[in-house]
Description:
Oligomer: single chain
Shape: elongated
Number of domains: 2
Number of helices: 16
Strand content: 5-15%
Order of helices and strands: EHEHEEHEHEHEEHHHHHHHHHHH
Helix content: 55-70%
Radius of gyration: 28 Å
Number of strands: 8
Largest sheet: 6 strands, mixed
Amino acid sequence: xxxxxxxxxxxxxxxxxxxxxxxxxxxxxxxxxxxxxxxxxxxxxxxxxxxxxxxxxxxxxxxxxxxxxxxxxxxxxxxxxxxxxxxxxxxxxxxxxxxxxxxxxxxxxxxxxxxxxxxxxxxxxxxxxxxxxxxxxxxxxxxxxxxxxxxxxxxxxxxxxxxxxxxxxxxxxxxxxxxxxxxxxxxxxxxxxxxxxxxxxxxxxxxxxxxxxxxxxxxxxxxxxxxxxxxxxxxxxxxxxxxxxxxxxxxxxxxxxxxxxxxxxxxxxxxxxxxxxxxxxxxxxxxxxxxxxxxxxxxxxxxxxxxxxxxxxxxxxxxxxxxxxxxxxxxxxxxxxxxxxxxxxxxxxxxxxxxxxxxxxxxxxxxxxxxxxxxxxxxxxxxxxxxxxxxxxxxxxxxxxxxxxxxxxxxxxxxxxxxxxxxxxxxxxxxxxxxxxxxxxxxxxxxxxxxxxxxxxxxxxxxxxxxxxx
Length: 470
C-alpha cells in the first residue's frame, strides 16, 4: 500500500507526496511483474483519514452505524509506506518514521529494508528520530535511543503509518529532509524498489524483531537486553509491598506487656486499606474522563486547576483517613495501605513492560520515590515536607508539563493530541497515567500529608505539655 496525505502533521500541503503517488500509480499499473495487489490511498490529513480507511477495510466501524465497510478488498495488507514530500523539490536525506500507536513497532526488517535500499542502491542517507547529523558516536546513539523511547512511551501516532501497526500491518512513513542533489526521481525509484522488495516476499514478515530500541540505522537493542531493567523496577515495588505486609505483623510497643506474657497473634484488618486503595484508583476515572471530554479551549484552565488540586487534595484525604483509623492500629493500617498500593503498581508495570517498555520504565522511575515514603511514627517534619515537595515535582501533571516543554508547545496542544489519540487512534496511555500512576502517586501524597499533619499535632501537644509543666 502506498499512501500520501493532502496535509502532513505540520499542516503543510503535501504536494510532492500526492503528485508522486498519482504518478507511481500510473507507472506501476503498466507492469506485469506484480504478484500482489497495490493499493494507492490519498487522504485529507495524516491521522484521521488513514484511521477511518483502515478501520473500514477491517470492518471495525462497529461504533458508528453511519460508516460502512469497504466493498472492495484485497485480503491481508503486506506492508504500507506513507510519503511525506511537501516541497516537491530537491532533498538531502530521508527520515524513516516507524513509531506506532501505544508503543507498537513494525517489523524491524521493513525498517532495515528501507534504510538499505535508500543508502546502498540510490545513495540517499537514511535518518531516524530526527537525528539529522548522526555520526554513529556514543552520544548520538544514546540520543537516538532516548528519543525513540520518549515517542514509544507517549504512544501517540506519529504519522499515517501508525494507524496500520495495530492491525499487524508493517508500515513506515518516509519524509524528505534538507536541501541536496536528490529529487523526485530519486525518491520515486526508491519507492519502486521498496515495492519490488515487498512483492518478492513469499510470506509476511514474522521472523525478525517487533520489540527493539534503535540506536542507529544498523544498531539496535533487543528486548532480551532492555526488558530486565523495567522488570527490576517493577520488582522493587513488589518487594516493598511484601516487606510492608510482613512488617505489618509487628505489634507496637506496649507498656502493659511483660517478657513473661505471651503475645497474642495479630490479625490484619484489610477492609479499610483495600477500600482506600480501590477508592484512590477509582478517582483516576475523573481526570481520564475530564481531559477526554472537555472542549479544547478549556484545557489550559482545567489543567491549572488540576495542578492546584493535586497540591492540596492529599491533606483533606489524609484527614478523612485519620478520622476512620483507630489510633491503636494507625501505623499498621497505613503500612497496609502503602503495601496494597505498591503491590498494584508493581503488577501493573510488570504487565505493561511487555507491551510498552518505555512507558513502564518512565512510570517506574518517576514512581520510585513512593517506595521510600515513611509510614512509621516520628516527627521528621522537615524530611516529610521535602519528600512532599519532590513528590509534587514527580506528579503526572508535572510530567505533562515537561512533555509540553520537550515538544516546544503549550499544554493545550498536548492534551488535544492525547484526546485525539483516545477517540480516534485507540491510544491507552491516558489509562496508565490516570488509573495506575496517578492513584499510586496520590496514595503516596496522602501518606506524607498524614505524617505532616500528625507531626504538627505532636509538636503542638508537646508545646502545650511544656507550658503545663512550667
